[in-house]
Amino acid sequence: QVQLVESGGGLVQAGGSLRLSCVVSGRNLMNGAMGWFRQAPGKERVFVAAISSSGASTRYADSVKGRFTISRDNAKNTVYLQMNSLKPEDTAVYLCAADLRRPYGTSTVAMYYDYWGQGTQVTVSS
Q1: Long-range contacts: 102-105, Cβ < 8 Å, 24+?
Q2: pLDDT at residue number 92
Q3: Confidence of residue 29 (pLDDT cuts 50, 70, 90)
Q4: Is the pLDDT of residue 106 over 90?
């Protein structure tokens, strides 16, 4: 069984930075592509970024391109999301997810991800 635990969220002023981490246990992370999604209150879960199993491929939502960077350390079973130049509209619960069926992909579709963490809250004040 795969477990994902996010950390690193918090309250930050607009223009600030945060680094989210997602530690995966229970299965070899190298077998899966990983993604970050976010969900604001009353809104749908939306794609933020994804990285393939080797880290060779990444994909970003247009809203975060140039500001966010996804990376992974397979030796530590950890995926990161570096968030810079944060804006109030980035406020949401951020969730990481594992896609173990398409390890070479970087899917933007939530339903393709097999396992999810509980999320970490990111709040950006203006």
Answers
A1: 102/33, 103/31, 103/32, 103/33, 103/52, 103/53, 104/33, 104/52, 104/53, 104/54, 104/57, 105/33, 105/50, 105/52, 105/57
A2: 98
A3: low
A4: yes
